[in-house]
Write a structure and sequence with these properties.
It is a single chain. The chain is built from 14 helices and 16 strands. The protein is of the alpha/beta class. The strands form 3 sheets. Strands 11-13-12-14-15-16 form a 6-stranded mixed beta sheet, sandwiched between helices. Strands 1-3-2-4-5 form a 5-stranded mixed beta sheet. Strands 6-8-7-9-10 form a 5-stranded mixed beta sheet. Strand 12, helix 12 and strand 13 form a beta-alpha-beta unit. The chain is elongated, with a radius of gyration of 36 Å. It starts with a helix and ends in a 43-residue tail after the last strand. The N terminus is likely disordered.
């Protein structure tokens, strides 16, 4: 008899260790393996009980929790977690006593505590009230689910922090040719909350200034624990820099938006190719290059007959060296031959003389500044450096608008050829026939 008693007790202990709920119940048994998929990524409202098998109050709640789950079937999801066995999930949501009931509604990463009675009727009423609030929020234009970043605007109407997950991280970050700054955060972390508006504002500025070549992302490390484990995340927030084909680098900079932007721009400068130096062949090239840039640097070079190919290439080489030096600025760089775009020259006050000439134009304000020094690396650098710090005189572009741009053929890279004059045969002309008085 005693062995049978021990056997029954042993089975009871095993059942208790496995939890209060079975597959036949309408309560969904949750664990770290299915929690993200079932709860966080779901559009449904969830009531989740965090319990411990040894807890007397949890044992008393079991019957009412099952009844509430059956009553709410198809309307609200009801789940349960053995938080004694899965301590990481309990700790993630600040569970300190049992049973704890949380409502996962509009923002799944910030569930609300259920404060009602522990009867099945009170639980159902609480769930329906939460459901009404969720529907009301959606009707008013709110969004359900997602992290804090998905609910916050950056410096404009569009959020530019990319929300990264276990599912999209490799494709978006590791397989990208671009550079990524990735923040690993926890919703309950105070330092993360302080960083959030700075990170969002920096993301918008960096996206614009690098023309979407440097990205800022965010990973909720409490949800995507596989990513956090892969990169050894032990504290929050942790920021890492990812370049294709390289090991991630720890971000060591400051946490203000200006410091984040500065580091991002340094990364862009290190990885950006030299800017293109384009010949102005038509209006489309001018607009595409200049309208999206803070400044557009335009050189008017001497006619090819005055310099030859070697001389022109020397001027272009000087411009390319300066463009490389200032590539972090994301300016546009253009050139044209003297006399080809006369309306543009007139609008910039170049006036058909003094080649080579150079102007830096702000197309948004239609203002420009002329190079007064030498057309050399030193002279151009000093000119652009002064403009960068707000020095130097400016003037309005003539007419206050984009001048007419002619469509021309591209330079073929060769020396110029003098035009061939038409020859006349004067052998048959008798000059004696002309009236000398008329001459």
């Amino acid at each position: 008899m005693r062995p049978l008693l021990f056997s029954v007790l042993g089975c009871s202990l095993v059942l208790a260790a496995q939890g209060f709920y079975s597959a036949s119940d309408d309560v969904v048994e949750l664990n770290p393996s299915n929690f993200n998929r079932e709860v966080i990524q779901s559009d449904s409202l969830w009531l989740v009980e965090f319990y411990a098998p040894w807890c007397g109050h949890c044992q008393s709640l079991t019957s009412d929790w099952k009844k509430a789950a059956t009553a709410l079937k198809g309307i609200v999801k009801v789940g349960a977690i053995d938080a004694d066995q899965h301590k990481s999930l309990g700790g993630q949501y600040g569970v300190r006593g049992f049973p704890t009931i949380k409502i996962f509604g509009a923002n799944k990463n910030k569930p609300e505590d259920y404060q009602g009675a522990r009867s099945s009727q009170a639980i159902v009423d609480g769930a329906l009230n939460a459901l009404r609030s969720l529907v009301k929020e959606r009707m008013s234009g709110g969004r359900s689910g997602g992290s804090d970043y998905s609910r916050q605007s950056g410096s404009g109407s569009k959020n530019d922090v990319v929300e990264l997950t276990d599912d999209n991280f490799d494709k978006m970050v590791l397989n990208s040719d671009d550079v990524w700054l990735v923040e690993f955060f926890a919703p309950w972390c105070g330092h993360c909350k302080n960083l959030e508006p700075e990170w969002a504002a920096a993301a918008s500025a960096v996206k614009e200034q690098t023309k979407d070549k440097i990205h800022l992302g965010a990973v909720d490390a409490t949800v995507h624990q596989g990513l956090a484990s892969r990169y050894g995340i032990r504290g929050f927030p942790t920021i890492k820099i990812f370049r294709k084909g390289e090991e991630p680098e720890d971000y060591q900079g400051g946490r203000s938006r200006s410091e984040i932007i500065s580091r991002a721009m340094d990364l862009f400068s290190d990885n950006a190719p030299p800017p293109e130096l384009l010949e102005i062949l038509n209006e489309g090239i001018l607009k595409k290059t200049c309208e999206g840039s803070q400044l557009c640097v335009i050189a008017v070079l001497p006619h090819i007959l005055d310099t030859g190919a070697a001389g022109r290439n020397g001027y272009l080489e000087v411009m390319m060296k300066i463009a490389e030096k200032y590539k972090k600025k994301m300016w546009g760089w253009l050139w044209t031959e003297a006399g080809t775009q006369m309306d543009l020259e007139a609008a910039l006050g170049i006036g058909g003389f003094g080649y080579p000439a150079m102007a830096a134009i702000n197309f948004r304000k239609m203002k420009f500044s002329l190079l007064r020094g030498s057309f050399s690396e030193t002279g151009i650098h000093e000119f652009l450096r002064d403009l960068s710090v707000g020095r130097g005189s400016t003037a309005m572009v003539g007419g206050g608008a984009l001048p007419k741009i002619n469509t021309v053929e591209a330079w073929d890279g060769k020396d110029g050829v003098l035009p061939v004059e038409e020859e006349y045969d004067l052998s048959d002309v008798d000059l004696d026939d002309f009236d000398k008085d008329e001459l």
